[in-house]
Automatic annotation (TrEMBL):
Keywords: Pyridoxal phosphate, Transferase
Source organism of the structure: Penicillium chrysogenum (Penicillium notatum)
InterPro entries cross-referenced by the UniProt entry: Aminotrans_II_pyridoxalP_BS, Aminotransferase_I/II_large, AON_synthase_class-II, PyrdxlP-dep_Trfase, PyrdxlP-dep_Trfase_major, PyrdxlP-dep_Trfase_small
Cofactor section: pyridoxal 5'-phosphate
Domain Aminotransferase class I/classII large: 46-333
Keyword Transferase: yes
Signal sequence region: none
UniProt-listed PROSITE patterns: AA_TRANSFER_CLASS_2 (PS00599)
Any single Pfam family the record assigns to this protein: Aminotran_1_2
Family: Belongs to the class-II pyridoxal-phosphate-dependent aminotransferase family. BioF subfamily.
Record's protein name: Aminotransferase class I/classII large domain-containing protein
Length: 416
């Protein structure tokens, strides 16, 4: 055997071993009913899982504004950004958009990232300084975990979901462990979402502020709030929960994402000017990636123009009607077969959580229609048909719900 053949065989053997390991990992997931798959929705499906809460992506007003912004540029206007924001990917258009969004959200400044994922990874991996403490809600999004994992922070402690008492306990134990926390010389970050993507509840932000004011009177508590699911849906003209509560000045960082109710892509970190400057220098998910091109800037701009002109308020009201409608129908099903699931719903939230696994479903209230409902959103479906009235029952919480059609075949699984 020649040396080349030997290397080739060794490589093939390694390759086989690797593929075998990958397949074994997938089989283990399969055995736990946790294997993820890409699915294309059947055209007849009613979609309960879209984040397009306001149906903006099919709104003619949105489309017209977006196309007008595109058409108003000269023919040679570059559609691509051409590079990272730090090279030639920056533009007056991107900076104007940041100023517009910052003003809308009553924030000192805003910094555009390519996605909410990038914003959380970039900000959380860079801003907490060595040894800083991070306290995070147990249901915080995966991108925040990723940012924390990469950060130089010291202790990262979880507190019970949306529980001011839980936060208080964890903070008290941190104070007992580390005098620098009580003295105000150690920074403590508190990570929350304003609306949680799986459970749909609205965080008790004012109560969290009261805990931090009581236990960290030197001002070393820094709130980081992800408003991904609140953007466009909650607050004055869709500005978010923080502005609804009037506590924007108490948040060190707010993250608004544009891939959900705003029918676009990208995200902005709202923060003070020094923090923005720091992110430009240290957030690797901003520095080492090609900036969003003009079509994305235009679509974000179109969405924010609609929000700030009040044109989306009708859609916000319509969403609330759909939420009430879906809630009523779910309550009806619950009465009909209460063993199958429990509805856990925060009033006015577009995300409805169901709990308790049911392995089968049928009955006259189920139309045998295919339903896509991994996270039970009350949004209009993306084809604009409105919320489906016939709901199939399913099981649980925290990422493992399964939905069944009338033949008991799984038609959708929840996000995890
Ligand atoms: C709370 C939260 N933050 C961040 C993200 C990520 O946002 P994007 O989809 O823009 O990457 C999501 C997306 O699901 C989310 O639910």
């Amino acid at each position: 055997m020649t040396a080349t053949q030997g290397t080739l065989e060794a490589r093939t053997a390694t390759h086989k071993t690797l593929v075998d390991s990958l397949s074994a990992a997938l089989s283990r997931r399969e055995a736990k009913s946790a294997r993820r798959r890409l699915t294309v929705l059947p055209r007849t499906a009613v979609d309960f899982s879209s984040n397009d809460f306001l149906s903006l992506s099919t709104s003619s007003a949105y489309r017209e504004r977006f196309l007008a912004l595109l058409n108003n540029t000269p023919p040679s206007f570059p559609l691509a950004s051409g590079g990272s924001r730090l090279l030639d990917g920056n533009s007056a258009c991107a900076e104007e958009l940041e100023n517009f969004v910052a003003a809308f959200h009553q924030a000192p400044t805003a910094l555009l990232f390519n996605s909410g994922y990038d914003a959380n990874v970039g900000a959380l991996s860079s801003i907490p300084q060595p040894g800083d403490v991070i306290l995070y809600d147990e249901l915080i999004h995966a991108s925040a975990h990723e940012g924390m994992r990469l950060s130089r922070a010291g202790p990262r402690k979880m507190f019970a979901h949306s529980s001011p008492i839980g936060l208080k306990e964890v903070l008290q134990s941190q104070i007992a462990e580390d005098p620098a926390v009580a003295e105000g010389t150690r920074n403590v970050f508190i990570l929350i979402e304003s609306i949680y993507s799986m459970d749909g509840d609205v965080a008790p932000i004012k109560e969290f502020i009261a805990v931090v004011d009581e236990l960290l009177p030197h001002g070393n508590g820094y709130f980081y709030v992800d408003e991904a699911h609140a953007t466009g849906v909650f607050g004055p003209r869709g500005a978010g929960v923080v502005q609804e509560l009037g506590v924007q000045d108490r948040m060190f960082i707010r993250v608004h994402t544009f891939g959900k109710a705003l029918a676009s892509h990208g995200a902005m970190v709202l923060c003070g000017p020094e923090t923005r400057d720091y992110l430009i220098n240290y957030a690797r998910s901003l520095i080492y990636t090609t900036a969003l091109g003009f079509p994305f800037l235009a679509s974000i701009r179109a969405a924010y123009e609609l929000l700030s002109s009040g044109e989306t308020e009708t859609l916000q009201r319509r969403l609330q009607e759909l939420i009430r409608h879906l809630r009523l129908r779910l309550d009806g099903l619950h009465t009909y077969q209460s063993v199958m699931f429990e509805v856990d719903h925060f009033p006015t939230s577009p995300i409805i959580s169901l709990s308790n696994i049911a392995t089968t479903t049928a009955g006259e209230s189920l139309p045998g229609k295919r339903i896509h409902c991994p996270s039970y959103h009350a949004a209009d479906d993306s084809r604009g048909k409105g919320t489906g009235a016939g709901v199939l029952a399913c099981g649980k919480h925290r990422g493992r719900n399964r939905w069944f059609d009338a033949d008991d075949s799984v038609v959708a699984r929840s996000k995890s």
